[in-house]
Description:
- By secondary structure, this protein is of the alpha+beta class.
- The protein has 9 helices and 10 strands.
Amino acid sequence: xxxxxxxxxxxxxxxxxxxxxLFEEVTEYDRTFxxxxxxxxxxVDSDPGAESYIRSNIxxxxxxxxxxxxxxxxxxxxxxxxxKPDFRILSLHFTWEAFxxxxxxxxxxTIHRLEVPETGxxxxxxxxxxxxxxxxxxxxxxxxxxxxxxxxxxRNHAEKWRFAEIPKMVRRSVSAQMSxxxxxxxxxxxxxxxxxxxxxxxHCSAKEFLQNELLARALHLMHDPxxxxxxxxxxxxxxxxxxxxxxxxxxxxxxxxxxRERERKxxxxxxxxxxxxx
Length: 278
């Protein structure tokens, strides 16, 4: 008898999937965004003749919203959104990382229009699911199904970087007090040399990485309605709520207080406590 055993290399991959936010939206605004997470925008209802679209600020191409279509926007892509209240949209914000801070879609400049009407109906059913755990993993399965074919073939392999532990440490303990000089010191390099290597490997500057991680942490803390904005500001190491609000608005486009009020008024939302990891 011949025995055979070979461990698949996928067992060693520390990929992490995380929902940043899930919400239903019926609102009106015109706003420019450049967000540190990926977006799936699903139109489930609209009035005939209504106009709502997403525009890539890189190519200028416009992607109108249409019933039953899903639009995928990669992390960090600068976009402009024109939205009318005649549309009911389900938004799924998520990160999918093979390495802390290195999203699988980082650096992609391509917006994808997915014509999958039945999938839109599945997303709507999970948004209506009363069990948040089932809803979370059902939606996660749909996102993976839709986005797996979209992963760039030339994705970066930052997990092999010699300073791979530094981004992991930042994720565990990021604060407003952390600087690029702190990271360079950990790597035993001067700031210019570390910054060049970091940008080459991570496809973003060390400063941008710190700010993205800080914003992600802030959004996570904002999900807790019991935490006051002042407390979040202190926990993140800001010298005052004023500077926290200034940072949040610059990175997210709206103030923390407006974000919290908007979340309270959402037509429906899923609890972030149930958001899973892959």
